[in-house]
Design brief:
The protein is an alpha+beta fold and 428 residues long. Helix content is 30%, strand content 25%. Strand 15 and strand 16 form a beta hairpin. It has 14 helices and 23 strands. The structure holds uridine-diphosphate-N-acetylglucosamine (UD1). The site of uridine-diphosphate-N-acetylglucosamine has 19 residues, from helix 1, helix 5 and helix 6.
Amino acid sequence: MSIYQVEGGRTLEGTAIVHGAKNSVLPILAAAVLCPGVSVVHNCPDLSDVRASIAILEHLGCRVERSGDTVTVDASGLTRNDVPDALMREMRSSVIFLGAILARTGAAELSMPGGCELGPRPIDLHLAAIRALGAEIREEGGALHCALPKCGLRGCQIDLSIPSVGATENAMLCACGAAGTTVINNAAREPEIVDLQGFLRALGADVRGAGTSTVTVTGRKTLHGGEHTVMPDRIVAATLLSAVAAAGGEAEILGTDYRQLSTVTAILTEAGCRVRSGEQRITIRRDGPLQGVRPIRTAPYPGFPTDAQPPVMAALCRSRGTTVFVENMFESRYRHVDELCRMGARIRVEGRVAVVCGVERLHGAPLRAADLRGGAALVVAALGAEGVSRIEGLSHIDRGYHGLEETLRGMGAQIRRLEDGGGGLPNL
Ligand code: UD1
């Protein structure tokens, strides 16, 4: 079991480059199933969730090769249409393979992904969208058996009651195999959906409107191999910005589109950071104390991202004044709060609301990550705390951050991964 050991209280300086987006690369790798040729995907981060996606592709009969940050998927010899339970459990978002497998093979066998660390994660909208396209889906004993009628998938109008990211993506992938045109209304507008559209177009698909609330797909185009570069991870960028806000100092975050992070940078500016944005770069400086800010309400894009709530909260634990958080996206997204309180933070949670009363200092503590972004929040808090923190549960963090410790060390942070769980406290 590996842990992070973080010695806090040092300001961060320097430059960090943001790796490819987890939430983009997962649907893109699933989309590779659609294409009876070779897809070349650049800027693929080496994350455990990406390795899980590659394992699913290989199980399906694809040939997958990774060379540096480029993953090549040859889906021409697809032999299967099932995803075994063990692989479904490894990554909740493996449900994204449903639409693609069905569109390519005309049938699919998956197990229900079940809940996750963030609480219940229903897939009713995914299933409703795919049913609307004509699929017959039988839910039985935790398994999903999906088949198509003789006429196959048919383009249709899909009205999502919530702009779900995953349901929008699944509907887009499935609609690529449907005859005629599909219109997805109240589609999620996240930048990762625009990225998926870019990849699908590179394969020859006719997809329009991503980034707006209406996505239109004209299906059954002849798809061919294609090449795509995954967008930078805006949540990794938000985490690094929060780290500088927590620890103080000045750093430049490269590779990220500042327009995708304006809700986060606006909050950090209000809290007292100096933020300057340019093409593919954000510079942040924090030299005075942070101030509490107006209520932060998570919302679908372009609102404040739920994935940035934990790291931003970690930074605001040390601030003058009070900040209210309202988590509107997921039920159990305050699992980092108890751990932050172990470090001396003052936070009260009631349902969807967390009230952070800023304190002057945090102290290092033994901590446990319970989910991906909550785990990143503990790293952020530890960087701004006095003394040494040890963080367990790195498997959660490794799902979405590649080489977080190296990136932060490059900015002057004292953070190390100890592979054996520690033992004594070595000198940093
Ligand atoms: C994606 C992101 C995740 C991010 C989330 C919200 C990926 C791999 N993950 O997750 O990092 O936190 O968007 O920005 O891209 N819902 C239903 N029924 C459904 C589907 C969703 O009720 O069938 C609800 C969810 O419970 C949640 C809300 O819709 O309350 C939004 O979820 P959704 O946008 O689907 O999130 P994911 O795609 O799972």
